[in-house]
Every structure is written in structure tokens, then in C-alpha cells.
Amino acid sequence: MNNNSQYNVVVLGASCFDGMASSMRVRNLLEPLINDDSITVSNLIYEKEANGIILCEGTINKINYRVIRFKITNIQSLFKFIWSGIKFIKVCKSNTIKNILYNYEYPDIKNISFLLFAKLIGYKIIFDVVEDFRYFTKYKSKLNRLKIISSIFFLKLFPLIAHAVVAISNHLYNLMLQVCKGKVPVYLIPITVDLSRFVLKPYYLPNNFKIFYGGSFGEKDGIEYLIKAFDEVSLKYNNVELILTGRASDTDNEKLHHYVEHSVCKDKIFYKGYLENDEYYEVLNQCDIFCMTRVNSEFSNAGFPFKLGEYLSSSKAVIATNVGDIPKYLTNHKNALIINPGSLVELINSLSYIIENPESISSLGQQARKVAELNFDTQLLSRKLLEIFKKI
After folding, report:
1. To which CATH superfamily is domain 7-192+378-391 assigned?
2. I need a labelling partner for 312 at 20 to 30 A (CA). Which of 35, 67, 146, 161 fits?
């Protein structure tokens, strides 16, 4: 533990070591505070979230971690899972500085014992809420279903467990205000982005326009109609490519490959799978048009797409569907092209507009970057989180 640190933080509910939205949300908020020695961080990781981690415990980028696992059919492994997590939380506790357990998402059947134990021995509990599980309709497994159902049930425990709640969107902020009933402070911290990953330099028109989507490939993400729109556009313009990156569940992966295989322009679609951070940002920075194509559902409108912050920071053209908090930050034809969710025609027209007016990539991109700098800069928002640590 760094003797100069002001706070000792244990992260639960997300790995700090992969490139998916949950990990990047936590990393962007905590890494600036780690780097200036304001906090010391440890990470309790569920095996399912331990992508790329070989050893069950160790230290990566100054963060101590422990991976815990269980089989739902093995009662003995369940007890070991709980005991290992409790032991890690106890061992990580500092006797000299404030201890904080930072939980990504809700209390649920998997983490409730850890949360109660941490509070019992003196940790301050902060929840970072990024989705409204009441609108969740697709379950990856029976365990995932149990987790979501238990999360909704445990909503009423927020005032009893939490010392503070952070929400990523206005919808979730208002929901948490209702749930906490004035007994626990609630703060709005939107999506975050590490601006240093995006080098500002003159933009030169490419020979081929690279259209980019990165992230998950669930129903909410609108991948099917993105590929359909690309088909129409690529038949009209020869100089376009579609770049896809991210990690998908088995079911979503099958659907994605089905969409690509049935595309009339599949030779222009490049699915790169999950990329490590450095490679991901290298690919992203080489692209010209970024698409955030979330559909119009209660689940989509409740959250805030994390990747949008990266798209805006690229200083390139962004096409975004009008869901959730998007209208709060973006204005059509000023800093992005805003389309109605699910509108294939509007997506085709927006892509065509940018290709036919390539100067808009730079003009929209410059304004998009300003939005990211003003609202989503991780250096600014991490200081806001530090102020919350001071208050609880």
C-alpha cells in the first residue's frame, strides 16, 4: 500500500483489466487517482470477468487482485467463493486510511455477503449504477437471470447499505434519488474517456472511408440495421469499409456472423473481435465515421453508451441514435448527426451525407471533441469521484 494514499479502495463487480465498458468505466475513474497516489486500489474479480488473467491472484498496474470462482452445482465451491471474497476484503483493509468498497452495479445474490461484511468491518460502500435492470429482458444463463432478479429485489437495500451512489445517466440518477429517499447522497457522473488516447492532428481525406462500431453486440446495440445500412451505402459508394470490434456472448456472436455472412458486401466488413487496449485505440484512431446505433427500448434509454465518449474524442464524424441522454450533449449537424433509433433510412442518409460531404468529418469532429473535453474527460470526473470519497 502506498503510504501517501488518502483512500484505500476495493473494487467489486468489474475487472480493472480488460477493455469492455464495465472495466473502462472503473479504470477511467480510478486510474488518474492511482497515478497521483491519491488512492490505493485492490480488485476482487469474479472468474467470468477475469478475461486474460492467468493467475488467480497478483498485481497488475499497481492494483492487487484476487479471482474467485464457484460452480452453482457445487455447494462446497460456493462456500469457498464466499470465504475467499471475505478474506480478500479483510486482508485489503487499511488500519490508517479510509476504506472504500466501490461496487459496480447493484447489490445481488453474488455480492451481498461481501457488501454486508465490508460494511460491518468499516468500509464505506459506493455503488456505481450504469443500467436499469428492471428493463432487462434477455438472460445469458440461469445464473445471470438469478443475478438480475436478485438485483431488482435488493434495490430496497440501497439506503441500508450504501454511503453514496453514483449514476451514469439522468434516468438512473432520478431512479436512485427515489430509491435512496434522501438517506444516501446520489451523484451524476456520466461516461468517461481518456483523452490522451486520441492524438489531435490534421485530418486528411482517405481513399477508403472506414466506418467503425466497437462494443457489445446485444439486441440493444442495433447491429443488424447497421449492417443493413452499410449494405445499401457500400453498393452506392465503392470506397467504404465497416470495422467491427468487441466481445459478444455465444448467442450474439452467432447472430453477428449470420448478419455478416448474409451481407451483400461482406467482403467489406471486417470483424476484428476483441482487441487489447493499445491495438483497439490504434484501430479506432484510423477510422473516419463512428456509429452508435442503440435501439429505442426502455433499457437503452435508461443507460448511457460508454463508447460514445471515445467516438466523440476521436475528432471525427459521429452518428448517434436519439436515446437516453444524447440530446443533453449533442445537437444534430453541430457536433454529430442524430438519427431516430431503428430508422434504417436515416442511418443510410447520414452515412451518405458524410461520404458525399467529407469535410463534415473534420467540422463535426472538432465540435464533438469539445463535447468530450467539457463533459467526459476522465481527469475531471475522477476528481469529482475523489470529492465523493472525502464526503462519505
Report:
1. Glycogen Phosphorylase B; (3.40.50.2000)
2. 35
Residue 293 pLDDT exceeds 90:
yes
The Cα angle at residue 198 between residues 247 and 365, in degrees rounded to 5: 100
Q: What is the pLDDT of residues 91-135, one digit of tens each?
A: 999 999 999 999 999 999 999 999 999 999 999 999 999 999 888
At 11, which amino acid appears? V
CATH fold match for the domains 7-192+378-391 and 195-375: yes
Q: What average pLDDT does range 243-254 have in this prediction?
A: 89
Give, in words, the CATH class of 195-375. alpha beta
CA angle in degrees (0–180, nearest 5) for 374-180-144: 85
Domain residue spans in the chain? 7-192+378-391, 195-375
Amino acid at 218: G
Place of cell 457522473: 189
